[in-house]
Specification:
Helices cover 28% and strands 25% of the residues. The chain is an alpha+beta fold. It folds into 2 domains: 249 residues, Zn peptidases (Aminopeptidase); 109 residues, Alpha-Beta Plaits, CATH 3.30.70.
Length: 365
Amino acid sequence: MNVIELFKQLLEAPSVTPEEGGIFNFLEHYLEGFTTIRIDREGVKNLFAYRRFGEGQHLCFAGHVDVVPAGDGWNTDPFVATEVDGYIYARGAQDMKSGVAAFVQALKKAENFDGTLSILLTSDEEGPAKFGTVEVLAYLKEHGLLPDAVVVAEPTCETIFGDAIKVGRRGSINGVVEITGKQGHAAYPEKAINPVHQIAPVLSNIAGAFLDEGDAYFAPSQLVITDIRAGIETTNVSPGKLKMMFNIRNSTQTDKDKITAFIASHLEGLDYTLTLDQSAYPFVTDTATPIVRALSDSIEAICGITPKNSTAGGTSDARFIAGYGIDVIEFGVINDTIHAPNERTSIDEVENLYAVFTKLIDNFR
């Protein structure tokens, strides 16, 4: 079976979160010579497989086999790998069964390595992500199997295959501000305290505000208002409470304390509460580390271009890996149709990704 045949087989496995569609049973047999460990928690299935070649570094490839629901608007069956004009269409083609196929095939064909090669796969990345990679990492730490470096094969490229590696990810902080006023008749505004009127003079200083200047790796952390509501949907009653929701994709320069101080500086004197919830923490892997250098060299050798180092985009399971002090980066196919109807990736990208990972195994020391 070549990498494209493997890719098509993975695509046709029904694996909407938290299902893995029988993929793990298949991989246990496909990766002959690898020791496989199944770590299942709360209906979520996970697979870790490793092969020790020598006493050197432990290089792991990680990802997920679960996909989001297909939704409407497809021109082909989303769970049949359909080849059209050099592209393969199916749910999960970019996110991220292309990456899984590429690294599984690279590991299957690997004959020599100085240390240990492994894969870490979950069926819970697109869902709550509570019983997937998190549980596997805890198991690996307990049993002395944590890797030295990890490549997560999420789709990272922007316009040309090979143009971007993710060396980190922004964090994500969700906020809710509630301002309490005093409800009253709209004809007697002097008898009410309208929280909409209270926030109006300062809203332009809050909405879209940059909380830091960013750095070489991160764009500035920006406060993005996602919802504001007040009142009871009638024209003759001024509201007694306002609720504003926001999200900040934060760099390492902004944290919850900084956000709390920022909100306080603009809402001073108002009766308000602020609730913050951090769902992901920012991280960055030093570009001088062996894994970044080896992957960059491998991409240049296969693609003829030097990738840029990026932290753009949302979150991934790499954030959990970074929490263990492991050097983690992400590299995969072009990201332009993930979670959309007619998700697809090209045959050339998958073959080149397989070639890059094969070269990485040769280059990493």
